[in-house]
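Re: the request from the purification team.
They wanted to know what the chain is likely to look like in 3D before they choose a buffer screen. I agreed to run a prediction and write the result into the notebook, where they can find it.
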Amino acid sequence: MTRARNNWVLPISLLLAILLELLPLPGLLQPLRPYWPALVLAYWLLELPERVGPGLAFIFGVLGDLAYGSLLGEQALRLVVLAFIIERFRARLRFFPMSQQALSVGVLLLNDQIIVSVVQTVAGLPARPWSVWLGPLVGLALWPPLHLALDLARARRKG
């Protein structure tokens, strides 16, 4: 049996990441929202580096900026930095056990929050509440099931 070339999984998963970011949540749950585009992009950067890189991260980030109404270029910057770091350390990250990989992704999401804080401070926006730092912890916890779900979707075989 040969692996099916599920070319639809990549664009659909990126679209779902943008939609999950747009999904309204109650005020108490809002700070717990992980940065879905970064999680999904991190998976693809690790698994398909020949198809996904900083260029796609930039385009995906600009689409996110347009969808979320954020500062133009903010999402793009965040995702390009993430793509660069993952590309640089891919050989190590790819072969970490899942617990260490999840911890690494959590650190990358924490780095993402630092970037957002710096960009918003430079733009003169008010300081963000401390609760936004909980999102990377949720992303860390969601990494193993997300990785498994995307692996299963990608590995489906032709029947």
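For the purification team: The helical segments are 9-22, 36-47, 54-68, 74-94, 98-122, 135-154.
Please add any questions underneath this entry.
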